[in-house]
Amino acid sequence: MIEVSHLSRFYGNHRAVDDVSFTIASNTIVGFLGLNGAGKTTTLKVIAGLLPPSAGTVRVDGEDLADAPESFRQRIGFLPETPPLYIEQTVREFLRFVGRLRGMPASEVEARLPEVMTRCQLAGREDWVIGQLSHGYRKRVGIAQAIIHKPKLVILDEPISGLDPVQIVEMRRVIRGLAQECTVLVSSHILSEIEQTCDRILVLQGGRLVFEGEGETLRARNEGSTVLSLTVRGAADVAQSIVEAQADATIVELTETDGDLLNIRIELTEDHREALIHALVHAGLGLRRLEQEGDELEDVFVALTKSASLSGGDR
Amino acid sequence: MNAVLLLASRELRTYFNTTWGWIVLASVLLFDGLFFNIFGLTERARYSAEVLEDFFFYTSGTVMIGGLFLTMRLIAEERQTGTLVLLESAPLSAAQLVAGKFFGAWGFLLIILACTTYMPALIFVNGKVSAAQVGVGYLGVALSAGTTIAIGTFASALARNQLLAVVLGGAFTLSILICWFLARFTEAPLSDVLAYLAIWDKHFQPFMRGRLNTENIVYFLSVSFAFLLAATRAMQARRWQ
Fold first, then answer.
1. In A, residues 97-116, which contact B (CB 8 Å cutoff)?
2. Contact between A101 and B87 using a beta-carbon 8 Å cutoff
3. Less Cβ around it within 10 Å: N or C end of chain B?
4. Residue contact B14–A88, C-beta within 8 A
């Protein structure tokens, strides 16, 4: 269990993190989301024990970072955006060194190595010099160093930045696998990634926590007014009459394409999506495409961060 | 203690695994050998003790300069390449971090120093010097090397990059070297303080003449400790204790 309570951090007069509080249950993957400069990295560095907070507390399983920073650090694994690697060493040598540095006996490090290699998909690269590895593999070695000592909490700062699509898919698998043995805090400014990888999302804007919950809950915030975009096969007047018969549904746009296909955009002020679609299909209109506009998490996120900026005033 | 040894041994191995370590090692040995050839092996008749004294004189200089170039990468390079976070996020104190770095670099410098022993050995075999003078001279060079490493470690802990680290380290070392000179132009009690602080003039010269004085040993150890403590404080200021 990770508890962050009223955490603030100033750089001179600039408040980078402002009274942030949240709790994370064990073995969950939590996404830390925010635009560049939102305070994500600062918050993560404070939680990792790298930066002292100006105010507030961080606890892992009830232990306060301020009380015993060294034993606290033993419970945490941290991967910054640029993996901290000694590129002249081989993967095995490097992980041995990090394991010993984090207080593990040599025999324990040796026993742990195969497990870490498998979990981080590094099998076959153990004796490669890190400097010769691709960016994707270096990120994996970065994760391996963060979990070698079996930490309770692993913090990954922008783990997918700079990766190609194939590497991103592999990294997603690696991160999901980590939750079997520890709690994972992942930061990113890419929403789709966070949504696909994480169980919960925390959104940070201007140093403040503006949302905490699941991706679905974040979406639900945008569901007061929905625009459905659909393509149907049938007559325009039939489609029009059906939509107008539905309460709270308004046709925003209706265009006929070649053949007998209709592109219709319908605004719903209440959630009557099921009833509308049911009526269209029962009237004999062939439903070819259905899309909900404004459903993209990006849209919700932009709306959320904009409203937070406005309510934040001139701070 | 294990963490200090672990860090020190990694640091030592890094010098042997990187071009930089070999460049410093080769440069110190090259210049030391050249100076020995030019000043030691002259046609002019000289006492062996004087030749040995000269050897320790220029060896102290080459080793001190070599030490500054070794320490510039200690912490500043890790900060520059982003690997310092690996050490700062590990469960080890700032004092352990600084001590591990210091002993690693000092160990490497002592290995370089060990490679110079063929020169005093030549004097010892072909001339007439006491083993005590050789031993005491080497102790002095080792202590002054340790002090330079401590000064360099402090500079490296302060600096954002390696260039700044070597410039800062050089400036600190030079200040402490020219204290004797400044003492001439100041009045007591400042001149007394400056004269006492002079690392080479006041405290190193007795070693090269084979004179072992506890006061000088204490001086080198205390200056080294003071700079290592300052380096520790500089590291502590940057992270949560």
1. 97-98, 100-103
2. yes
3. N
4. yes
Residues A155 and A267 reside in one and the same domain: no
Contact B237/A at CB under 8 A:
no
> Average pLDDT in the B108-121 region?
94
Q: In residues, how long is chain B?
A: 241
* Shortest distance, CA B86 to any CA of chain A (angstroms): 6
Contact B6 A101 (CB under 8 A): yes
Range of the domain at B130: 2-236
**CB < 8 Å to B11, chain A:** none
Q: Is A301 contained in some domain?
A: no
Q: Is residue A287 part of a domain?
A: yes
Total tally of structural domains belonging to chain B: 1
Q: Which of A227, A261, A222, A266 is nearest to A246 (CA)?
A: A266
Closest to B239 measured CA to CA, from A285, A132, A78: A78
Question: In terms of residue numbers, what domain contains A177?
Answer: 2-215
CB within 8 Å of B239: residues ≥ 6 apart: A49, A50, A51, A52, B88, B94
Q: Does B18 touch chain A (CB under 8 A)?
A: yes
Determine the average pLDDT of the residues in A150-169: 86
Model pLDDT for residues B29-63, shown as the tens digit of each residue:
999 999 998 887 777 778 888 889 889 999 999 99
Q: Could you tell me the CATH number of the domain that includes residue A7?
A: 3.40.50.300
